[in-house]
Fold this sequence. Notes:
Elements: H1 3-14, H2 20-30, H3 33-36, H4 41-44, H5 50-56, H6 63-75, E1 82-87, E2 106-111, E3 120-124, H7 131-146, E4 150-153, H8 159-170, E5 179-182, H9 196-205, E6 207-210, H10 222-233, E7 236-239, H11 247-257, E8 261-264, H12 272-282, E9 286-287, H13 291-297, H14 308-320, H15 327-332, E10 337-338, H16 339-346, H17 350-362, E11 366-369, E12 373-376
Parallel strand pairs: 3-4, 3-7, 4-5, 5-6, 7-8, 8-9
Antiparallel strand pairs: 1-2, 2-6, 10-12, 11-12
Helix pairs in contact: 1-6, 7-8, 8-9, 10-11
Amino acid sequence: MNKDELRAWLRLSMTDGVGNDAARKLLGCFGSPQAVFEQTETALCQVVTPKQAQALMTVPNELAVQCVRTHQWLMYQPDTHNHALWTLGDPHYPAELLQLADPPLMVYVSGQTERTLGNAIAIVGSRNPTPQGAQTAEQFGESLSASGLCVVSGLALGVDGAAHKGALRGGTAAAYWHTVAVVGTGLDRVYPRQHQTLAGQIELHGLLMSEYHLGTAPLAHHFPKRNRIIAALGLGTLVVEAALKSGSLITAKMALDLNREVLAIPGSIHATQSHGCHALIRQGAKLVENANDVLEELQLAPQQQVNLFAEALDGADDVGSSADEHPLLKHMGFVPVSLDALQARCGLDTAKLQAQLLTLELDGAVGRLPGGLFQRLTLV
């Protein structure tokens, strides 16, 4: 893409009041962004509204700055990964996005651009998951990636980040992205900042993707909108933990609208983070207990047999028969429990119980939840 082409694409995407739908109509009629801006206002009015046509005749204030910024970003190619801008009609533009009612006019990408998506699964969930939920997301990300699926998520805190980390650890296919992070900002910044290192790791083995121009801040309304891209890239969407009012349920709804599969992992009836998953299951989402459930629902043959929960339960039984298991774990189970309830079960005084819980928490065997609850974790 030369500078004139880049300027025309950016101008079309930055014109106020001209969204993806109107832009596609213009491209369908005139063939290219350059040709669009060669038209008279009268000719444009044959395709879009008079207000949109008038807006197209005006150069956006920030266009010159954005052209320089984008050109410099595209010219800077690090040793470890690539920067690219894929527009509608570009052979690299993901075909899955064309199934959207409003596919992005263009997407910015950073990472292993020579690879492809392959079969993919979206994994989404709470930004504030239980310790068990975060661990489950990471386990599923790793196992599904090891089974040949690309894990798509949103780089957010919580389940998203855990799923990406697991996918990076499990991925082996050299021809496909191990994981794709669809973000709600420009690709010249990382949000949240805590995921700066994770974003760099994704660029080494996968792809960062955004429909937003460079320099775009993390505005609240961008994140629900980007969820449609997450839903479109996956053969299905797996919800790990989600409250009843959650952006993850928006993604699940978008997946349904695209005729994608929706899958959900059940959790404790006492955990609000599981109520959204339970609602999805009641509405017909596939109840998932292990990675093979996902592969079966997507009608994919597993490259390796994986059964996370069975392995976890087998491991728990083995530990239970070992003299090395901490006695307190036998009283906990895997359901969140309050300090008072646990004290009633084990009979320890408060000080001793709190000391033992702290030890187990430091060992990674117990997680502390909001509301004074504790939960036993699956050790892997």
